C-alpha cells in the first residue's frame, strides 16, 4: 500500500497487522485442544441434568424399529417430522435429556438467545403457523417451539428421554444395528440417524487445583437455578449476597454476564480473549408483515441470508442483520461510488457491469469479469483493509460504551472479524460500568490455578462463593468422543478408526463400512451460520432416501467406494485454502485452538451451503440413488 493510500485511512494497517500477530502469539498454546479436560470421572457432575423434574423409571427395551434417531435437538426432531411426512412412522428418538431441545435444552442460562434471525432459524414456520415474538428468539421460546413441532408431528410418543446411548454395533448376520443404552436397552434398527449436534459436549479448562475448590461450581450449559434463583429471563436474586466468578467471555458469557452483574453482590469476569461485540437491535415481530408473507417465503428468506454469507449477493438483503452486514461491509468497501460508477480495487466499471455484479454475486463477478485484471493477493489485501475498518468500529464501540478506559481497552478484539464467532449484544459492554463488576484480563493466558477459596491469577487470590465455567464445547475432537458412544461397523471397524486419517463420506452423510447409517454434522457437508437450515435440508434428504428404499423393497444402503472417493476428491478440490487466515487468527474453536486443520479431507463443502443444497436436490431428481450400494 502506498503512502498516499495510507493517508486516506483513519488507522495504520501495519500497526494493526503487528497488533493482531502479537495478540495471537501470546495466546498460542502447544496443547491446542488438550488444554481442556474431558468431562468424565471426577468432572462427570458438570454434565448431569439439572432440569429433570422427575426421573423416569422403566424396564429395558428390546424392540426392533425401522429407524432409530439418536439426538432430540433440531436434527432429531426434523428427522422425525420428515419421516412422518414420508409416511414412515416406525421410529424411535433416543435423547439423553428430559425432553426435546438439544443445545437449547441444555443451554438455559440467563439471557440465552439466538444470534440468527428467528424467521430463518426456526424451521418449518410455514407448516406450524408459529409467529416468533421477536426478530431474535430466546431459549424459552425456542423450547416452546420444540413442543409445537413435537405436537404437530406427534413425536413424544416415539421418544425415549433420559436415555443415553453407550454403543452402536452393526449385526452383519441380521443387517441391523444394535443400540445399547445406559438403561440396559438393546434396541435394534434397520437404519440409524446420528443427529448428535455440533456443540453438545461441555469442556473445562485444565487448571491446577480445579478439584480443590470448596465453593459451588457449574457449567453454563447446566445452569444451577436452584443456587442462583431466577430463570432464563434473569432475576438471579439468590446471588445478592454472593461473590461470583465467571471464566470465559465467548458468546455464552456475553449473554449471561449482564444478568450476573444485576444479581450478584460482586462479579469477577475472567477473560482470555475478548469477543467482538456489535449491535443487536432486537425488535418485536410485526404481525401484519408476518401474516402478509407469501407461500415459500421462509425458503426464499433462508436462501437470501445464505447467499450473503457465501458471496452470492442479490440486490435485496431480506434479513438485514449483523451477519449480512458483515458481508455488505465487504461489498461496500469494494464498491465506492454508487450504481452509476463503481470502483472495485481501483478499476472503474459502469452500470451494466454493476448490474451483472448483483445478478451473479461477488464471487462469480470477480471470477468472470475481474480476475484477468487483478490477482488474489490484491483482493485479499482489499478485503483485509475493509475488515480493519469494520473492526475499528467494533473497538470504538467499547470506548463509547465502557466508562473506564483501561477496561474498554481490554474489551477490544484485535483479530479479523471471522476469526471468532461474532457476537451481537446491547447490554454486555455496559455491564462493566456497574460498580460490582470487575474484568480480570488475563492478557491471553487464561485462568491457570484455582485454590480452595477461589481463583488465583497473577499472584492474587480472588475469593468467591461460586465459579461458573463459560468455557464452551468440544470442537475438533474425535467424533465418537463428542457423541459419547462408539460406532462399530462392518467387520467391527470403529468410526474412529475409519476416520483417523481424515473424514471419508459421501455427501457428508454416508460412510462406507457403516451401512444404513446417516450422519449430520461431522464434516464434508455444508457450513452455515444458520445451522437449522442445513439440518432441515439434510433431514429431508435422508427421509427421501428411506422412502425410496421402502418403495423399492430395499433394506440395505451403503456408500460405494467410488462415490466416497469421488466425494473426498470433491471436498479436497473445493477446499478453500483458509489455513493461512486461520493460522493468523487468535486461538478459538474456529481454528481448533490455534492448530487449524491441515487435512483437506476434513473440510466442509467448499462450494458453500446453497451449492451443496442444490447438489442434493439435483441428486434426488435423478431418482436412482446414484453412488449408493443397495439391495
Instruction: Report how far apart the termini are.
Output: 62 Å
Q: In CATH terms, what is the architecture of the domain at 64-201 and 478-559?
A: 3-Layer(bba) Sandwich
CATH-defined topology of the domain at 64-201 and 478-559: FAD/NAD(P)-binding domain
**Form type:** globular
Strand content: 15-25%
The CATH superfamily name of the domain at 64-201 and 478-559 is: FAD/NAD(P)-binding domain
The mean pLDDT is 88
What radius of gyration results from the CA coordinates? 25 Å
Structure class: alpha/beta
- Count of DSSP H/I helices: 23
Per DSSP E runs of 2 or more residues, the count of β-strands stands at 24
Uncertain stretches: 336-362, 369-374
Largest sheet report: 8 strands, mixed
Highest CATH level, the class of the domain at 64-201 and 478-559 = Alpha Beta
User: Residue share in helices?
Assistant: 25-40%
Summarize the helices and strands and which ones pair or pack:
Layout: H1 3-7, H2 13-27, E1 36-38, E2 64-70, H3 74-85, E3 91-94, H4 103-106, H5 118-121, H6 125-128, H7 139-152, E4 159-160, E5 165-171, E6 176-181, E7 186-194, E8 203-205, E9 216-219, H8 225-228, E10 243-247, H9 251-263, E11 266-271, E12 277-278, H10 287-291, H11 297-309, H12 322-334, E13 341-344, E14 347-350, H13 351-360, H14 362-370, H15 376-401, H16 405-410, E15 423-424, H17 428-431, E16 437-441, E17 449-450, E18 454-457, E19 460-463, E20 466-469, H18 479-483, E21 486-488, H19 495-498, E22 517-519, H20 531-551, E23 557-559, H21 561-574, H22 579-583, H23 609-622, E24 628-630
Parallel strand pairs: 2-3, 2-7, 3-4, 5-21, 7-22, 9-20, 10-11, 10-20, 11-16, 12-15
Antiparallel strand pairs: 1-8, 5-6, 6-7, 13-14, 17-18, 18-19, 23-24
Helix pairs in contact: 3-20, 12-15, 13-14, 20-23
Amino acid at each position: 500500500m502506498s503512502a498516499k493510500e495510507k493517508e486516506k485511512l483513519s488507522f495504520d494497517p501495519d500497526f494493526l497487522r503487528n497488533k493482531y500477530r502479537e495478540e495471537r502469539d501470546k495466546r498460542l498454546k502447544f496443547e491446542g485442544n488438550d488444554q481442556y479436560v474431558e468431562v468424565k470421572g471426577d468432572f462427570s457432575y458438570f454434565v448431569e441434568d439439572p432440569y429433570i423434574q422427575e426421573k423416569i423409571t422403566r424396564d429395558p427395551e428390546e424392540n426392533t424399529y425401522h429407524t432409530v434417531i439418536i439426538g432430540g435437538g433440531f436434527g432429531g426432531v426434523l428427522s422425525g417430522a420428515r419421516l412422518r411426512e414420508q409416511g414412515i412412522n416406525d421410529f424411535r428418538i433416543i435423547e439423553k435429556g428430559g425432553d426435546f431441545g438439544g443445545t437449547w435444552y441444555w443451554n438455559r442460562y440467563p439471557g440465552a438467545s439466538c444470534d440468527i434471525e428467528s424467521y430463518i432459524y426456526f424451521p418449518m414456520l410455514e407448516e406450524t403457523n408459529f409467529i416468533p415474538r421477536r426478530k431474535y428468539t430466546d431459549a424459552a421460546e425456542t423450547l416452546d417451539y420444540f413442543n409445537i413441532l413435537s405436537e404437530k408431528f406427534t413425536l413424544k410418543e416415539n421418544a425415549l428421554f433420559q436415555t443415553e446411548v453407550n454403543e452402536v454395533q452393526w449385526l452383519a448376520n441380521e443387517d441391523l444395528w444394535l443400540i445399547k443404552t445406559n438403561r440396559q436397552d438393546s434396541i435394534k434398527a434397520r437404519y440409524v440417524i446420528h443427529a448428535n449436534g455440533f456443540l453438545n459436549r461441555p469442556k473445562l479448562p485444565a487448571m491446577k487445583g480445579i478439584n480443590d475448590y470448596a465453593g459451588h461450581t457449574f457449567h453454563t450449559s447446566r445452569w444451577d437455578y436452584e443456587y442462583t434463583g431466577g430463570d432464563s429471563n434473569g432475576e438471579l436474586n439468590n446471588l445478592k449476597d454472593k461473590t461470583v466468578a465467571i471464566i470465559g467471555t465467548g458468546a455464552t458469557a456475553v449473554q449471561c454476564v449482564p444478568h450476573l452483574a444485576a444479581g450478584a453482590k460482586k462479579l469477577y469476569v475472567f477473560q482470555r480473549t475478548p469477543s467482538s461485540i456489535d449491535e443487536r437491535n432486537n425488535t418485536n415481530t410485526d404481525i401484519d408483515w408476518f401474516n402478509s408473507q407469501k407461500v415459500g417465503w421462509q425458503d426464499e428468506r433462508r436462501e437470501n441470508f445464505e447467499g450473503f454469507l457465501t458471496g452470492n449477493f442479490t440486490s435485496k438483503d431480506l434479513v438485514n442483520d449483523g451477519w449480512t452486514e458483515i458481508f455488505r461491509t465487504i461489498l461496500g468497501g469494494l464498491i465506492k461510488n454508487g450504481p452509476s460508477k463503481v470502483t472495485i480495487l481501483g478499476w472503474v466499471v459502469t452500470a451494466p457491469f454493476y448490474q451483472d455484479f448483483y445478478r451473479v454475486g461477488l464471487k462469480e463477478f470477480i471470477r468472470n469479469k475481474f480476475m484477468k485484471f487483478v490477482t488474489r493477493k490484491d483482493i485479499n489485501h482489499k478485503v483485509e483493509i475493509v475488515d480493519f475498518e469494520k473492526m475499528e468500529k467494533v473497538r470504538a464501540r467499547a470506548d463509547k460504551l465502557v466508562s473506564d478506559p483501561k477496561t474498554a481497552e481490554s474489551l477490544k478484539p484485535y483479530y479479523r472479524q471471522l476469526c471468532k464467532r461474532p457476537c451481537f449484544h446491547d447490554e454486555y459492554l455496559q455491564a462493566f460500568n456497574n460498580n460490582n463488576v470487575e474484568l480480570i484480563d488475563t492478557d491471553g493466558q487464561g485462568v491457570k490455578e484455582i485454590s480452595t477459596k477461589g481463583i488465583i491469577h497473577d499472584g492474587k487470590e480472588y475469593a468467591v462463593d461460586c465459579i461458573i465455567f463459560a468455557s464452551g464445547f468440544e470442537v475438533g475432537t474425535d467424533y465418537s468422543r463428542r457423541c459419547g458412544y462408539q460406532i462399530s461397523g462392518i467387520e467391527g471397524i470403529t468410526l474412529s478408526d475409519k476416520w483417523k486419517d481424515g473424514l471419508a463420506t459421501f455427501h457428508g452423510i454416508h460412510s462406507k463400512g457403516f451401512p444404513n447409517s446417516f450422519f449430520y454434522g461431522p464434516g464434508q457437508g455444508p457450513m452455515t451460520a444458520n445451522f437449522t437450515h442445513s439440518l432441515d435440508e439434510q433431514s429431508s434428504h435422508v427421509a427421501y432416501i428411506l422412502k425410496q428404499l421402502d418403495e423399492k423393497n430395499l433394506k440395505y444402503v451403503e456408500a460405494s467406494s467410488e462415490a466416497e472417493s469421488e466425494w473426498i476428491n470433491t471436498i479436497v478440490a473445493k477446499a478453500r485454502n483458509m489455513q493461512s487466515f486461520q493460522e493468523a487468527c487468535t486461538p478459538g474453536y474456529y481454528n481448533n485452538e490455534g492448530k487449524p486443520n491441515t487435512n483437506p479431507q476434513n473440510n466442509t463443502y467448499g462450494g458453500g451451503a446453497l451449492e451443496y443444497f442444490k447438489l442434493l436436490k439435483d441428486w434426488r431428481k435423478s431418482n436412482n440413488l446414484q453412488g449408493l450400494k443397495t439391495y
